[in-house]
Amino acid sequence: MSRNTPSELVASGLKRERAKAGLSLSETARRAGIAKSTLSRLESSEGNPGVETRWAICTALEIPFSRLVDPPQVRSQVVRPGQGARFAAEGADYVATLLAVCPPHARRDIFLIVAEPGSAKASDLHPAGTVEHVVISSGSALVGPAGAPVELHPGDYIS
């Protein structure tokens, strides 16, 4: 059983944050300006890195210094109907409610969209690499690229 010593906290935090960043041991060490063997030892709970080494690693991973020793917290978020920031569309009966914001090092937001029958809502182009996921819970909608929309019904999913 782990005693959660400072070196164990740093080791688990380092592994967790390096995995989140999608970086190899070699690339993280290169970015931090430290030896790969030093980083490997730290991930194995060996050694006691100085503040400079920890700071360099955090800079390489683009994380706050405290994240290496702060165990992850289990968090739940409940958004009830009518809660959340709401954004109405211009020119269409369409309301988007923000349910979850993007976590650090990710590009993802989750919205609940309520659209009434009527005029079409054409979205502006998204940044390159953006993938939208749409699930229809009630009614039907034409969804997809302007040149190839697909009619969706309750339970249908498109990306």
Topology:
Elements: H1 6-21, H2 25-32, H3 36-43, H4 51-61, E1 86-88, E2 94-100, E3 110-115, E4 134-135, E5 141-143, E6 150-152, E7 157-158
Antiparallel strand pairs: 1-2, 2-3, 4-7, 5-6
Helix pairs in contact: 2-3, 2-4
Main sheet overview: 3 strands, antiparallel
Number of strands: 7
Number of domains: 2
Count of alpha/pi helices: 4
Order of helices and strands: HHHHEEEEEEE
Instruction: Give the overall shape.
Output: elongated
Radius of gyration: 22 Å
What share of residues is helical? Answer: 25-40%
| Strand line-up across the major sheet | 1-2-3
Overall pLDDT confidence: 83
Question: N- to C-terminal separation?
Answer: 43 Å
Unreliable spans are: none
Strand content: 15-25%
Structural class: alpha+beta
Pfam families: HTH_3
Domain HTH cro/C1-type: 14-68
InterPro entries: Cro/C1-type_HTH (IPR001387), Lambda_DNA-bd_dom_sf (IPR010982), RmlC-like_jellyroll (IPR014710), RmlC_Cupin_sf (IPR011051), TransReg_Diox_bact_type (IPR050807)
Protein name: Transcriptional regulator with XRE-family HTH domain
